[in-house]
Structure of LUD domain-containing protein:
Amino acid sequence: MSARDEILAAVRGALRDADRAEAPVPRGYRGAPPPADVVSLFAERVVDYRATLSRCTPADLARTVRAALGSAENVLVPESFPVDLGGVADADDLDSCDAVVTTAAVGIARTGTLVLDHGPGQGRRALSLVPDVHVCVVREDQIVPGVPEAVALLDPDRPQTWISGPSATSDIELNRVEGVHGPRTLHVVLVGP
């Protein structure tokens, strides 16, 4: 008998009389209590990730998004975006676009992360990855405390893009370079009452 066979035989012997009943695993047993103000924490974490943050009311959304776009001329605006910005919808040539404007499915307070599930107002996945500027609109009521709450809201069958700040890498000589794998500039517009 080989050493491998001896070990496996010992394991089988030890498990022979083991209780095979399923043990419930309590979810959230290590969960931290939710932060007192998820919106403020989200805003703080977004800025920590070197994204720009603007806050506005629904009535000021179009003006705030236009201001966030700055001098961008060729702007992609997906179908079903909540306000008319007069941009191009789902252009085929993403390399010629200066910026994209999307909504988000959810925002995560503890990590300052935006999650796009590419539903209404978000467009196809490549829209948020190719243009150099991404302006993302998220409503205060879409912000949840942590990742477990976000995952519970998302449809696992939909494509998802999780965004924490502008695209960045430190692969080359440990120098931070932004815009290598996605938008160099991320501007989050937080819409409140």
Notes: The chain is about 20% helix and 20% strand.
